[in-house]
Amino acid sequence: MARLCLPCSSIRASSLSLLFRSPILSRTATISFCSSSDFVDSVAKDDSKRGPLKPGLYLVGTPIGNLEDITLRAIRVLRSADVILSEDTRHSGKLLQYYNIKAQLLSYHKFNEAQREQAVLTRLKQGEIVALISDAGTPGISDPGTQLAKMCAKENIDVIPIPGACAVVAALSASGLDTDEFTFVGFLPKHSGTRKERLIVSSNETRTQIFYVPPHKLSQFLEETTPYFGESRQCVIAREITKLHEEFWRGSIGEAKEEFLIRQPKGEITLLIEGKEETKAENPTESQLEEELKGLISDGHSLSTAVKTVAERTSMRKKEVYSLALKKFGKQIQVEDEADE
């Protein structure tokens, strides 16, 4: 009989087992819903069969809201780490306590990462296992960790990613917008000029644009984006992803401005805006091509250079432009060449 243990925070009893007939195994298997501590103990027993982890910096993805959104591998790494670097030790302490992880916890955030880096590098060079976690999601993605990973790569210290929950991917997958191509912008720059430049670039991209927006600045963000994206562009405001009050609001930017002017949202926000619609350029008329060629040739360009320039400007096939150039200006060029001789 096979046994599978799964965590279940909503069940008060220490464990609950269900019997079922497995069509794959052709035998009876047991699923046990157990407490988080029992679950971690079962993971630990399995870990002993895998052997020790190699030294290095482990970038561990953690839940973005729901504590159950963590991988078995992440738990194993956190339990095995000599030290866990955490953006907020009080916040991360709740996660570690939930899974009965008792490794040393050390604060590591944007205000002290420069001071911590050398000490952390020393520990890594001594062969320790260092795990880095952020408050939610993946370290280094709009969170501390990028500089440390760069330094480790430069020093030939292993940097090992441990994938986990991701607000960007979760929001995009459920948004209903195009997922083939997208641009993750994250938080907009604080400087107004740089913000404007970023919005201009994003508004002209055909890919879905994804932003992180503080809840108290949502109305300001929508006001800022309107001049560049317009009011009719569709957007999705994903709030409190994986949490109890998860919400996906969908509509135009104009509608969003009205909606969130009268209500103040709470919680983390991932905001997605559809890409700019591709407009197929119409081919210029023969007379327009003739005018462009005439202007270039009058300016002293050779026939071949004029043809190449016009073809690049209009996305027309070079062969077609050359054929027209010979028909319209071939005799003129020939006369000029004979006169030069």
UniProtKB/TrEMBL annotation:
Alphabetical list of InterPro entries matching this protein: 4pyrrol_Mease, rRNA_ssu_MeTfrase_I, SAM_MeTrfase_RsmI_CS
Protein name as catalogued: rRNA small subunit methyltransferase I
Coiled-coil parts of chain: none
GO biological process, alphabetically ordered: methylation; rRNA processing
MF annotations from Gene Ontology: methyltransferase activity
Annotated organism of origin: Arabidopsis suecica (Swedish thale-cress)
Keyword flag S-adenosyl-L-methionine: yes
Top-level taxonomic group: Eukaryota
Keyword Membrane: no
UniProt cross-references to PANTHER family, sorted A to Z: RIBOSOMAL RNA SMALL SUBUNIT METHYLTRANSFERASE I
Limits of the Tetrapyrrole methylase domain: 57-256
Pfam families documented for this protein: TP_methylase
Keyword list, A-Z: Cytoplasm, Methyltransferase, rRNA processing, S-adenosyl-L-methionine, Transferase
Position of the signal peptide: none
